[in-house]
Specification:
Structural class: mainly alpha
Number of helices: 8
Helix content: 55-70%
Radius of gyration: 18 Å
Strand order of the largest sheet: 1-2
Largest sheet: 2 strands, antiparallel
Length: 141
């Protein structure tokens, strides 16, 4: 707990901010991050990193998605695609080269023995790629 000079008590405000960002649109997130960054760049980076998700990848510009996918193997994408709706799956696959898309599609339609765990791992791996590329300023999220 933190206490300011006015007697107000803040209980883990950072966690509350991170939770709040999950419910914002990409435009709202970007606007708030622009306001936070000058005052607290470390918090802005943390917020951006925790708000990245595989499902949010669909909302990115096509050229950014294409760049991300150059760092992801087709089977990993195929497993992660199981979490998305058909329209989102089509969008991501349409941005891939044909052979890559066919391999990812084949994996996406394959039953896995521990599907929930594997889907979570694949989504986390893609999220890690997105985060690393953003930190290196290769992509803008």
């Amino acid at each position: 707990m933190e206490n300011d000079n006015t007697g107000n008590v803040f209980i883990n405000g950072r966690a509350q901010i991170l939770e709040m960002f999950e419910y914002l649109t990409p435009e709202e997130r970007e606007r708030l991050l622009k306001q936070i960054r000058p005052r607290n760049p470390q918090l802005a980076d943390e917020i951006m990193e925790t708000s990245i998700s595989f499902k949010s990848m669909v909302e990115l510009p096509d050229h950014t998605i294409e760049r991300i996918l150059t760092y992801v193997k087709a089977p990993i994408l195929g497993v992660a695609l199981k979490t998305l709706n058909t329209q989102s799956q089509r969008k991501l696959l349409s941005l891939c080269e044909r052979a890559y898309a066919e391999e990812a599609f084949k994996v996406m339609n394959t039953r896995l023995s521990n599907e929930a765990r594997d889907v979570e791992r694949a989504s986390e791996r893609i999220k890690a790629v997105m985060s690393a590329l953003s930190k290196k300023k290769i992509i803008s999220l």
